Amino acid sequence: MTPTREQLVEAFTFGKCYAMAVALHEETGWPIGVLLADYRDTGRSTDVRRRAVHAFVLTPNDDVFDARGVSGLDELRNAFFLPNNGRIIESSWVEECDAVEDFKTCLVNTEKHLHSKARLRSEIDYFLETTVPAARAASLELGLVAQFQRECDATRRLITASLAA
After folding, report:
1. What is the arithmetic mean of pLDDT over 91-109?
2. pLDDT confidence of 83, banded at 50, 70, 90?
3. d(C-alpha 139, C-alpha 145), whole Å
4. Helix 17-28 / helix 117-142 crossing angle, nearest 10 deg
5. Interval 121-137 mean pLDDT
């Protein structure tokens, strides 16, 4: 069964965003952004933990570009930091990675893990190896880059028209 547009967006926003970020990076050359957060579980612990919350690419205007399309950083935070999700966000920020290797290193170094960094890196390599091809196909199916280019062209035409007036 072929997934619907909504199913593709859901899958590559929540769960396979790392793969979509790599696919969009390959297609656009734009840096991969990683939304990181320091948080603590409410009522359970005072320990602050760090995790990679979401991955995407950063447009030349510093907008977020992922399976959902283009949005601002505030919209991204609102989508991932829901008020009653059981966690208190201490701080959040975006780490910018110019290459896929930098992205993988960021993921390995972000969180404390039960396993060694070498094993985690191997798991990340395997995950990306097996999911990036599907992310490339989903990006084409969703028309993400084409849609972004159309929006940029429309903005350029508006700017050109206003300058000519």
Report:
1. 94
2. low
3. 7
4. 70
5. 95
For 28, 89, 92, 103, 150, the CA distances from 141, given in Å and listed in that order, are: 16, 34, 32, 25, 16
* Contact between residue 33 and residue 80 where contact means Cβ atoms under 8 Å apart: no
Q: Which residue has the higher pLDDT, 165 or 35?
A: 35
d(CA 157, CA 163): 10
The alpha carbons of the chain give a radius of gyration, in whole angstroms, of 17
In order of 54, 119, 140, the CA distances from 114 in angstroms are 21, 10, 36
User: By the 8 A CB rule, do 48 and 24 touch?
Assistant: no
Q: What is the 3-class SS of the chain, one letter each residue?
A: CCCCHHHHHHHHHCCCHHHHHHHHHHHHCCCEEEEEEEEEECCCCCCCEEEEEEEEEECCCCCEEECCEEECHHHHHHHHCCCCCCEEEEEEEEEEECCHHHHHHHHHHHCCCCCCHHHHHHHHHHHHHHHHHHHHHHHHHHCHHHHHHHHHHHHHHHHHHHHHC
Q: Is the pLDDT of residue 153 over 70?
A: no
Structure tokens at 20: 């979509």
82 pLDDT above the threshold of 80: no
